[in-house]
Design a protein that fits this description.
It contains 4 helices and 4 strands. The protein is of the alpha/beta class. Helix 1 crosses helix 4 and helix 2 packs across helix 4. The two termini are about 10 Å apart.
């Protein structure tokens, strides 16, 4: 099963977290992620909060959604509202499109101490949503 996680932003934070969680849940899944406007590197705070729970995303590199043009996927999962609204402009074929929106912690205006809590909250929300998505949707499809 092939899954593409797509975000409006830089493919440096939320989508890389989600990719790591899905890959951990089931090694047989082909999981990819990309962004409409990819950053040059992975978000350092995302790396930090993922390491806290045993995931290393430091070697992941942000990618453009263009790398997946013309490819076919079983699921296209958009992770932010901006992507959901712009999906018609993307040349990616998917049997199913699901939207799971998450706040972008990189856009928060708060202290460094508050920011780490926000990243952790969003990390945990992504983890919970993708565990639910896997158990209720993907695992069922894989069994059939």
């Amino acid at each position: 099963m092939k899954i593409l996680l797509l975000c409006t932003g830089g493919n440096s934070c939320r989508s890389l977290m989600a990719e790591a969680f899905l890959q951990k849940l089931d090694k047989s899944l082909e999981v990819y992620s990309g962004g409409l406007h990819p950053d040059k590197s992975t978000d350092l705070m995302a790396i930090k909060v993922m390491r806290e729970i045993g995931f290393d995303i430091s070697t992941k590199k942000p990618k453009s959604y263009h790398e997946f043009d013309g490819m076919e996927f079983d699921y296209l999962v958009t992770l932010c509202d901006g992507t959901k609204d712009k999906i018609d402009t993307v040349n990616i074929q998917a049997k199913h499109h699901i939207h799971l929106g998450f706040e972008d912690p990189r856009k928060a205006y708060c202290t460094e101490e508050q920011l780490i809590y926000l990243y952790r909250d969003i990390r945990d929300e992504i983890k919970n949503e993708f565990e639910y998505f896997y158990s209720r949707v993907l695992a069922v499809k894989l069994k059939s």
